[in-house]
Specification:
heterodimer; A: FAD/NAD(P)-binding domain; Polyamine Oxidase, Chain A, domain 2; de novo design (two linked rop proteins); five-stranded parallel beta sheet; 15 helices; 27 strands; B: 138 residues; mainly alpha; binds flavin-adenine dinucleotide
């Protein structure tokens, strides 16, 4: 056992002691720091002792952060009321399917007309294997998961901005990956074998490096050159009898470099994007549906909070039922406010000026998504692409417009693909268009990659922009470096009897895990205080 | 935090500003405003109306806005840095584009404030340094 610099202090003892001081969250965070796991910091809700009986908690917003707070606190005996402005729970975790109606500010209501069984996740859509809090609730509520194909070598990349003969052509990802790494390995191998790396590495490592480069780039041992590999795909696929197959030919190094298509790949994808990636069967909103039976009795839907007031005894929220016009107010000992800061900042509250100013240091990202129903799964039938993303350098806010293919309903007749996932100024600009114009713009992009196929297969679409959603006003919180240091810590602390929660109070902004784990963090603080008295 | 990295390297390393942050010859303050602001603040600067008299408009009008017409440095910083539901544009708009938009909005719909030069925006951007937001992806 390692000795942690203190006589008798083993790692286990250290963790036990930390648990006594900082609670389970601290232990789990420390375990990660020790490299026991590389995953989100918290794995399960904090283990809280003592009872909340006789105390009231008001939860504002029934997104994941609000629902989690309500569910876990009610288990401890607190009397919880949840006020939710929308007609459903889950907040951003929404799935558009037949009959789903939504309305952006300044737009007509939009009704989803997909065929029965087809859907698009207009908010969250992927759950990385290391987001253990999200996986915890999926498992807890028995929400079945399936694989979300987030990487697919058979899928296409497409560059309209690149130069040379590969620009403006759809190309299989495997071909580009094999060629760029093959040729790069060849260069380094030749440099190493002709003494050009002398002084840059230990001489005894050179042989191993050469072995690695041959392995990595599929180089010929004879001349250390890259002549292609059948792993990039075949010209003629091997078959029965005399069909031995014909190897594909690599593109030239400079054509691949000129094309810019290498920009879509790294040694390993961004950590949050790596396999194993999951999605709930039937849509991301299934996790919210999991909470519902357990929080239904404390939940007021269609109930928009207009005003929040507090004093040293409690918190009062004044609300209006947007369907019936009924008005009322609810008072509790404590409040978990799980409303996005973009919305909260425009509400009538009595937070101290310093707290309000801290909220102003965050900015919310404009984001939009669009699902397009195709009458035939031509990407599967004609090209053998099952899920994953077609990556292009059209501008989606940054130069990586993806068309994402459904990871469900394999080989069925129709499918809904993600035709647009746009950010920043492109999200702002396209959101100014009418529904019809938006879809037309998105079809135009798809049509360049699948000429003659994309538009003609299109049946109906659904588009949604989060910055135009009244109860969100943005996709997710963006913290600048200095705001993280100055404003963010202020919002982590309660303002009087009000605790904020939501993805914005995490370092996993824009992820459901951020919402779940921020709720766990805040209910632990609230409970410790409520039971200390 | 991790989700911001890859796109940050795409958006920041290879492109100082996003693809559209280059002033096209025919771009005016008015046409830029229509593209980059009007979806939220309305073509005539009217904002998004309050659902009922007991709440604030979710997106404030710019016609008659004191915030827009007062301190040029504060307004330029707001556009670059964002504020709650107001997005940060520092990755998406150049100093010249922001100057054109603000000069237009400060003189439109009855507003009567002075133009804002690209230099004022550049100064505000300099103060932000590399503090800005990175492009996220999820
Ligand atoms: C386009 C997009 C893609 C994403 N992709 C992923 C992904 O792939 N994987 C992933 O894990 N995460 C993803 N996320 C992030 C994830 O959706 C969020 O982090 C998470 O759902 C936020 O939960 P929350 O509880 O903090 O906020 P919300 O879900 O926004 O909940 C806030 C709640 O407050 C309510 N509310 C607002 N105003 C009032 C009021 N006045 N009175 C009462 N109630 C009010 C709202 O209606 C809402 O229900 C994505 C988000 C977006 C927008």
């Amino acid at each position: 056992m390692e000795n942690w610099g203190v006589p008798g202090m083993t790692r286990r003892r250290f963790l036990e002691q930390l648990g006594r001081i900082g609670g389970t969250t601290a232990v789990l965070a420390a375990m990660n720091a020790f490299g026991i796991a590389t995953a989100s910091a918290a794995e399960r809700p904090p283990e809280l002792r003592g009872s909340g009986k006789g105390k009231k908690v008001l939860v504002l917003g029934a997104g994941h952060a609000g629902a989690t707070s309500a569910y876990e606190l009610s288990k401890l005996g607190y009397e919880v009321t949840i006020l939710e402005a929308r007609a459903f729970t889950g907040g951003r975790a929404q799935t558009a399917r037949k009959g789903f109606v939504a309305q952006e500010m300044g737009m007509d209501a939009e009704k989803c007309e997909f065929d029965e069984g087809l859907y698009i996740n207009i908010g969250p859509w992927r759950i990385p294997y290391h987001h253990r809090s999200t996986l915890y609730y999926a498992k807890h509520f028995k929400v079945p998961l399936e694989i979300m194909v987030n990487e697919n070598n058979a899928s296409f990349v497409y560059s309209h901005k690149g130069k040379g003969p590969l620009a403006g052509k759809r190309i299989r990802q495997a071909e580009i990956k094999a060629d760029i790494r093959g040729y790069s390995s060849e260069l380094v191998a030749k440099a190493a074998s002709t003494g050009k790396l002398e002084g840059l590495m230990q001489p005894e490592d050179k042989e191993v490096l050469l072995q690695y480069l041959i392995h990595e780039g599929y180089l010929s041992r004879k001349d250390l050159s890259y002549h292609g590999t059948d792993n990039r795909g075949w010209k003629i696929h091997p078959g029965a009898g005399l069909i031995g197959g014909e190897e594909s030919e690599p593109y030239t190094f400079s054509d691949v470099l000129d094309s810019g298509l290498w920009q879509f790949f790294n040694s390993v994808p961004e950590f949050d994007m790596q396999h194993t990636m999951f999605q709930p069967v039937g849509g991301m909103d299934q996790i919210a549906r999991g909470f519902e039976p357990h929080i239904k009795h404390m939940l007021k839907l269609n109930t928009e909070v207009e005003q929040i007031r507090q004093n040293d005894k409690g918190v009062t929220a004044s609300w209006v039922n947007t369907k019936t016009g009924e008005r009322g107010s609810t008072t509790a000992d404590y409040c978990i406010c799980a409303i996005p800061l973009s919305v909260l900042h425009r509400m009538d509250t009595d937070f101290p000026a310093e707290f309000v100013e801290a909220m102003e240091q965050v900015a919310y990202a404009p984001v939009g998504k669009s699902g397009l129903q195709m009458k035939r799964r031509f990407w599967e039938e004609d090209y053998g692409i099952y899920g994953g993303h077609i990556k292009t350098d059209f501008n989606c806010g940054y130069p990586q417009w993806i068309i994402s293919l459904p990871s469900t309903g394999w080989q069925s007749q129709k499918g809904v693909l993600l035709g647009a996932y746009v950010f920043g100024d492109v999200a702002v600009e396209t959101s100014a268009l009418s529904q019809k114009e938006r879809i037309d713009r998105f079809l135009e992009i798809g049509e360049t990659v699948f000429p003659g196929e994309y538009r003609s297969n299109f049946e109906t679409g659904f588009t949604w922009y989060w910055h135009k959603a009244r109860y969100n006003q943005g996709g997710w919180a963006e913290w600048s470096k200095s705001a993280r240091e100055t404003a963010y810590p202020k919002l982590l602390e309660p303002s009087g009897r009000i605790y904020l929660a939501g993805e914005h109070l995490s370092h996993m902004t824009g992820w459901q895990a951020g919402a779940f784990e921020s709720a766990w963090m805040q209910i632990e603080k609230l409970h410790n205080r409520a039971t200390a008295a | 935090m991790t989700m911001t990295k890859i796109i940050a390297s795409l958006a920041l390393a290879s492109f100082a500003l996003s693809a559209s942050a280059v002033l096209a010859a025919d771009e005016t303050g008015e046409s830029l405003y229509a593209k980059k602001c009007a979806t939220c603040h309305g073509l005539t600067g009217q904002g998004q109306p309050a659902a009922r008299p007991t709440v604030q408009p979710p997106i404030p009008p710019l016609a008659g806005s004191g915030y827009l017409q007062d301190d040029p440095d504060r307004t330029a910083t707001l556009i670059l840095h964002g504020k709650a539901g107001m997005p940060a544009f520092h990755l998406f708009l150049s100093d010249e584009q922001i100057s054109k938009i603000l000069t237009y909005a400060r003189g439109a719909w009855g507003n009567q404030a002075s133009p804002i030069s690209p230099e004022v925006v550049a100064d505000a951007r300099k103060k932000l340094g590399d503090d800005g937001f990175k492009m996220p992806s999820n």
